[in-house]
Specification:
124 residues; alpha+beta; Zincin-like; three-stranded mixed beta sheet; 5 helices; 40% helix; 13% strand; globular
């Protein structure tokens, strides 16, 4: 682990700070969602994404669930999950500051999927 890498504890704190920085009107709408820090994406995670970015790109986070815009009233209420991947973010960031910014951007991006936005609808 390079000295610029965020430790698991630091990474979890940054994820928490990103969630706390959400505008209240959005934060109030996030219900029944688990935000998890994971070291690496699973093979299933990698298989589930569209391969637009090529083989050398890293998966930084993933939304596992049904977007609010696609839910029906009779769906079971299992929690949705957003996973933020520490390994890939540490690998693509060249400084701790970049890692912190990537965590924030990834949390917000994955929450966009929760709200029903597609990649092409979100700023990158």
């Amino acid at each position: 682990m390079a000295s610029r890498d965020l430790t698991r504890r630091e990474f979890e704190l940054v994820v928490g700070e990103a969630l706390e920085s959400l505008p209240k009107r959005f934060a109030d709408l996030v219900e029944n969602v688990v935000i998890a820090v994971e070291e690496e994406p699973t093979d299933e995670d990698l298989d589930s994404i569209e391969d637009d970015a090529g083989d050398d790109s890293e998966l930084l986070g993933i939304y596992r669930g049904v977007a609010l815009t696609e839910r029906t009233h009779d769906m079971p209420l299992l929690p949705d999950e957003i996973a933020i991947f520490r390994g890939p973010i540490n690998r693509i960031a060249s400084t701790r500051e970049e890692a912190v910014e990537e965590v924030r951007e990834t949390v917000i991006h994955e929450l966009g999927h929760y709200f029903g936005l597609h990649d092409e609808e979100m700023p990158h």
